[in-house]
Amino acid sequence: MGIGSFTSKTFLILISLVFLAAAAGLAYVGINAIITYKQYEHFLGNMYVMLPSVIILCVAVFMVIIGCLGFFATIQESCCGLGCFITLISVILAAGVASLVLGLVYKDKINPELEKNMEIFFQKYDGKNFESSAVDFIQQELQCCGIKNYTSWQNTTWFKTNHTVPESCCDKNATNCSGDLKELNKIHTEGCEAKLENLLHQVLSFSMLVILGFVIIELLCLISLCVIYRKRESRGYEIL
């Protein structure tokens, strides 16, 4: 029993450390996703798109608690602690699956909200108001111009008044760029909608991929813990 007990204890400590490391990884992914969404939240409208990222952060906090509980329960050889460890892993596994489902659901809802809100912001552009700052930010950050492409500006009040696109459309390496459409080599010609949608999809897809990996790890850990628990219980031994 000595070798078996030592092996079980080592395995459980390893699982606890894996959960602490996983919590750090999930926290990074969740925070990165939220920061990305917050930068462009004015164009998203539907804040439920951020829900999977919020769940990721909650799961990360929960996993820190689980990792600490598992570590101390193993060190102190607590039967009750191990039982709680298994229960909490089951809960966190369910949360991970829920986050994956939500990510799939809201991934397809980005485009309709994005197109509608971008149209509103670009139409209100005057170079001074809040909408203008948001539009300038996205055009400079994503190196794009207009909604579909640079010609989208031709339907706006700004272009009809100034006969140019905003200077935020200009390539950062271009000199003496005024936004004149006769100098297309000095401005970005790709639209912002497709670029922003692709960016948000990439962030969400990466988050879902990370969650899927941790869900698989959690499932394997849960199965292993249950096997250890059942073997110990059937032999009439203490848990550790």
TrEMBL record:
Span of the signal peptide: none
Location within or outside the cell: Membrane
InterPro entries: Tetraspanin/Peripherin, Tetraspanin_animals, Tetraspanin_EC2_sf
Recorded GO CC terms: plasma membrane
Keywords attached to this entry: Disulfide bond, Glycoprotein, Membrane, Transmembrane, Transmembrane helix
Membrane association type: Multi-pass membrane protein
Statement: the UniProt record of this protein carries the keyword Heme: no
Transmembrane segment boundaries: 12-35, 47-72, 84-106, 206-229
S-S pairs: C144-C177, C145-C169
PANTHER family per UniProt: TETRASPANIN, TETRASPANIN-36
Similarity remark: Belongs to the tetraspanin (TM4SF) family.
Name of the protein: Tetraspanin
Highest classification ranks of the organism: Eukaryota, Metazoa, Chordata, Craniata, Vertebrata
